[in-house]
TrEMBL record:
SMART domains reported in the protein's UniProt record: HTH_ASNC (SM00344)
GO biological process terms on file: response to amino acid
Name used for this protein in its record: HTH asnC-type domain-containing protein
PROSITE patterns named in the record: HTH_ASNC_2
Length: 139
């Protein structure tokens, strides 16, 4: 969003909006900006969320599978989670054959992996408004 549109939306002068954005970036509140790319434009015809359960919960195994997954071009996002599964892996692939090959070569062939469960993603929506909560002690 252009700075002048942001300023108008929040009701401040463009110079004020620019300064506030600069301060938010310096404080680490705003960590970056991105472009939303159409998956089909880059050859992604199918997306899935793959739940990965590790054989053992040792730091070396967690770190090894984490590094391995982040090195793969099919991995769009990686979440290290608590619960029955250890990782949720958001993958983007060409088609179901590519998904099967990915699961077999990138996951089930790894000694760290005990179990995977694949969930196809039919639709994806992002909440355009990130909720903002007051910090503890603020009114």
């Amino acid at each position: 969003m252009p700075n002048k549109d942001l300023a108008a939306r929040v009701g401040v002068a463009p110079s004020t909006a620019l300064e506030r954005v600069r301060r938010l970036r310096e404080a680490g509140v705003l960590q970056g900006f991105h472009a939303e790319v159409a998956p089909s434009a880059v050859g992604i015809g199918l997306q899935a969320m793959v739940a990965v359960r590790l054989a053992r919960h040792s730091r070396p195994q967690v770190e090894a599978i984490h590094a391995h997954l982040l090195s793969l071009p099919e991995v769009l996002c990686l979440y290290h989670v608590a619960g029955a599964d250890d990782f949720l892996v958001h993958v983007g692939v060409r088609d179901s054959n590519h998904l099967r090959d990915f699961a077999m070569s990138a996951l089930t062939s790894r000694e760290e992996v005990a179990h995977i469960q694949t969930h196809l993603i039919f639709a994806f929506s992002r909440n355009p408004e990130l909720p903002v909560y007051a910090q503890a002690g603020e009114d």
